[in-house]
Amino acid sequence: MPDMDLDGTFSWEGRRIAWGRAGSGPAVVFCHGTPWSSWLWRPFAEALSTEFTVYLWDMPGYGRSSKDAGHTVDFEAQAAAFTALLDHWGLDRPHVVAHDYGGAVSLRAHLVHGVAYASLLLTDVVAIPPAGSPFFRLVQQHPDVLSRVPPYIHEALVRAYIADASHRELREDDLAALVTPWLGEEGQPAFYRQIAAYDERYLVENEALLGRIDIPVNVVWGVEDTWIPITTGERLAAAIPGAGFTRVEGAGHLIQLDTPVVLATALRTWLAARLSPPAGPA
């Protein structure tokens, strides 16, 4: 199993997008959310690379991609970037797996930009209104003030915010990996900038188009998600024709770290079913 890294770079409208690829077989593309990066999906992608060609990428403004203050990082910009990146890779109907903000991005790329997928698996996604934790909404109201707090206060805020997404206590090395991209002169303002860019009208637009989806979709949700309640996931699945819904006990919003074995099993089962020929008559 390869040790996957983001060793590719794609330039798009002045942004630098870091990406990585591994394995062989049908294409599976992972989309992360906020305030995360592709790091959350890396072990799952590595495990699947024995059967699939897996792709990771950091959205502009996140992880190892560029964080230029002059670049818009809202849903539309990210969906356009994703559309361009898929074209750059030359992929035709990949399987897409998305978490959090990546849900809205992948849905918008499909529904608005016309990108074709083979299937879509959505895990605890930001996709339909309302969305956002209480801290998220506070930052939206005061982004300039909070971006100027002393670095040690900022780090404490980000650590507490990220830790709250998990139903189980995060290991220190996992917490550090999630917090570090948001520290320093570049990371601190970028953290508040990406929250301030949230615009719920894109979610309203997505929701109005969900009935058009005609590909296999499964919605996976942590029962203990306090950021986006499971009732939102149920509403989302009900609005997508034929979509399945999987409840994951013992998982919060950070389902990748709360119940990794359950999620890995769900991913492999979902993808394997998409590749299996339909059963013929008995």
From TrEMBL:
**Recorded superkingdom:** Bacteria
Give residue ranges for domain AB hydrolase-1.
Answer: 26-259
Protein name per Swiss-Prot or TrEMBL: Alpha/beta hydrolase
Keywords, sorted A to Z? Hydrolase
The UniProt entry, under Gene3D superfamilies, shows: alpha/beta hydrolase
- UniProt source species: Pseudonocardia zijingensis
Name any one GO molecular function: hydrolase activity
Q: Which residues form a coiled coil?
A: none
Taxonomic lineage of the native organism: Bacteria, Bacillati, Actinomycetota, Actinomycetes, Pseudonocardiales
Q: Does the keyword Hydrolase apply?
A: yes
Which InterPro entries did the record assign?
AB_hydrolase_1, AB_hydrolase_fold, AB_hydrolase_sf
Q: Which SUPFAM superfamilies match?
A: alpha/beta-Hydrolases
